[in-house]
Structure formats: structure tokens, C-alpha cells
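To whoever is covering the structure queue this week,

Two jobs came back overnight. Logging them here so there's a record in the thread.

Job A:
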Amino acid sequence: MEKKMEAKRRIVLVPIPAQGHVTPLMQLGKVLNSKGFSITVVEGHFNQVSSSSQHFPGFQFVTIKESLPESEFEKLGGIESMITLNKTSEASFKDCISQLLLQQGNDIACIIYDEYMYFCGAAAKEFSIPSVIFSTQSAANYVSHPDMQDKVVENLYPLRYKDLPTSGMGPLDRFFELCREVANKRTASAVIINTVSCLESSSLSWLEQKVGISVYPLGPLHMTDSSPSSLLEEDRSCIEWLNKQKPKSVIYISIGTLGQMETKEVLEMSWGLCNSNQPFLWVIRAGSILGTNGIESLPEDVNKMVSERGYIVKRAPQIEVLGHPAVGGFWSHCGWNSILESIGEGVPMICKPFHGEQKLNAMYLECVWKIGIQVEGDLERGAVERAVKRLTVFEEGEEMRKRAVTLKEELRASVRGGGSLHNSLKEFEHFMMTL
């Protein structure tokens, strides 16, 4: 068995060209590389990981022929573009694997691919290479499978599965088609999820029974020592600004790398933040405000108001910000990466806007872990002000913070020797020896 492992030490990673999916898969690559595996990353022409290759010394990057131009990806939208990408990428990926096998002398232990890049399964089967699926979402997200839509969610009565993560996803038939493809594990040998048992023990138990193959919770990946927290350039000037603020007073606002807001929503949020009398650090990317060129295009009185109480950056070192003593809350889109990072620093959250599986994540934050507040309905200044005050001024915010700190300690314990991540990694290494 040892001889077999020594003969095949290369792992091929296939990420989606989207930051929220790329980062955790590359963090996994760093962890596996530290265990002695060689890493090859297969990517398309746009949103390339190799542009940040300085973070990954020794990694091999291979570019396959782009089957879907970036302009077409944006025009089709997320669901349709993923279905099209999978239908058109299989042949070029098979050619890539064929070339790698020739170059590497058949030295491929397995292919680990993002669950939304399911075309990889056919190539793995054709070349008799073991495949492992990587999920960047919570284990609980699997409860949204289409054949369970009318069932009541266990422990979340009266919510049905159809109430959870499908709003805002476009035509349901196409969304369900993508769900069915993702849920089909084909000939995969295992599933890796960027989660941790202390947050999702019941969901993980359910999932292991449901999928019929090994499930490895290898999260939180951002807390592993060798992993970069971001592959994008960040503005660190905000740290100096945070250093001047009172402890637990600042609301940090970031709606992810793809989230967008209407100009009206930004105006209402600006007024609500300022009316709360709490300082805020706001990440506003180029293109994140629909129909404008960014914060500079907003009315002068809003710009003046924001500059007096807040600080605006285009990108922040998020984990460092969340760990800063001045930060008392995180206004988030509720992406799974952001949730893990926030819990990892013991910071409670405000949830809005969100779509897809982020709706389920927000529900868990508020109803299960009780470390977050959802802002329901339209985004208006009164609701913003109330949410901020609940988290930073009122007693319920302090109770949420205590619960968040407890979860933080559990996450940190999972990474240490004997913790759940440590043990799951050992189990996955043993699994790799059996392939």
C-alpha cells in the first residue's frame, strides 16, 4: 500500500473561475501540498488562479481551451453559464488529462473538482483515475435537493425545503437541472466539504447516509497555517483607521466578490448606518453599485455623510479586519466562506442581501447558532439603523457575541492536534493510500 502511495503523489485540482470557489479549493491544495502531494491546477483563460501563482510555489498550472468566453458567461448568467460550461468543457478536459498522463508518467493519484465542474467525472472515469468532489457550501445546503421540495425541514418546522435556497436563481427548471447534476456523485470516490462538525454535525451525519460515499469535512480551511486568505490585492489602509476606533464599535460591511446593490439601496444603507451613530468600514467594489461608477457617483451629501462616520475601501483584508478589536459586527451577503471567517473570529453578523444558498446560511445564523440578525424585506434606513443598534448597542448583541466567541473557540480547537479537522485530514490521507 505504501508503494502505491509513493508512486502516485500528484493531485489535479479543478476550480470554478469564481473567487468564492477558487480560494477554499486552493487552500485545500496548500494543505495537501504540505502533506507531500504535488499539485496541478487546471483552469480556463479568465479569472485565472495562476495570476496569483506567487502564493503557490511548486504548483503546476495548466490552461485548457476556453469553452465559454467571459462575455458569454456574463450574458447567460450564473445557472445557464454553468450548465453550458459543463456541456462544452468535457472534451478539452479529457485532452488535458491525456497530456498530463503522458508528461507525468501516469503520476495522478486523483482529480479533485469543484462540485459545479461535474464534467470532470467523465474524464476521471475514462482514464480510470479516482475522483473526489469538493464543495464550498455548507453540508446543510444539500437539503435543498429538488426531490425534497415539499418536505418539512427537520428541526426547522414549519419551513419546507422549497422555502430555503431557490429564490433569486432564475427559472426553477434550469436551477433544478443544475442541482440534479451536482447531486449526482457519478463515480466519485469521496466528497470533501469546507465545513466543521461542531457547526454541522447533524447535517454531516445525514449527508454521509444520503450520498453513499465517504464524506470528509476538512474545514475551516482558512484557519490552516499554510493557507492564503485571499488571492486578490487588498487595501490595508483600513487597518490604520480601525486602530483609531473604540473596541467592538465598528460594523464591517462586505457583500462578497459578486454581490451588487441598487443605488437606492446604497443610499438607504448609508442613511441607516449614519443614523445608528456607529462607525463603519464598507467594502464597495467597482461594479458593486448597479448603474454607477462606485461611491464617487453618489450624491455629494451622501459622500460627505459617509466620509465623516465611515471608511470606504474597494477590497479589505477580511480575516484581519474581522479579527481587529474594533470590529463588533459583520454585515454580510452570507456566503459560506464569509460565515466561516466571521465565526472564526467570534464576530456576530447582519444578513442582507443574500440569494441562493445564502438564504439558508442566514437562517442558520439567526435560528440555529443564534449569532446573527436577518434584515427582512426592502432595504430601508430604519431597518438598517435598528439592525446595527441591535448588534452593537443592545444587550441581545452582546449575547450573540458571547455565543460567537464560544463557536470561535470550537473552530480553533478543531484545527489543533486531535481536533476534527486534524483527524479528518489524517483519515483523508489514509483514504488516498487506498486508491
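Job B:
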Amino acid sequence: MIKDQTLDIAMDEEVEEVEVSDADIRRLALGFIHEAWEEGLSHGIDSAAMAHAALFTAMMDLVSMFGEEAVTKFAEEIPTRVARGDYSLDRNLH
């Protein structure tokens, strides 16, 4: 996990280093993915194709960083996480 890193933020003509948390980085990353997703949809690519490409890219990247065994273990937990609502936008947090 990334903890208390810095990001280079372009503001006008200057670049400023800003400390960010892991949650900040994840929100920023999700924003970039969302923008790319919207761009793909705007070019006529259907949502299922975007999802497939995103999952393939994510799994490929995870395997290159952590190896097949670790990613296999992660993937085995996905059905439980889906059933638990981890990927549902309208889930209730207790």
C-alpha cells in the first residue's frame, strides 16, 4: 500500500509537491479510470467491452507485480467480496 506519498500537481505553470494518503491516491486513480471509461463509451465502445479490457489490464498488471500465485489467491476471494457488496455502489456501510 502507498502511505503518505507525494504527488506532483501541476498548477498553472508551476509544479507543486503535495502529500497525499493512500485513500487520496486511490480516489485519484479511480478518477483517471472513470475518465478513460467515459471516453471509451463516447467512442461507441460498449460497457461490457470496457469492463473486460479493464479487468484484463488490471489482472495483467497485478500478475507482473505480485506473481500468479498471489493474484490467484486474490481472485479466489472475489466471489465472496461481490456477494458481500464490496463492489456495489449502493451498499450500506456499517
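Note for Job B: The chain has a mean pLDDT of 85.

Please reply-all if you pick these up so we don't duplicate work.
Q.
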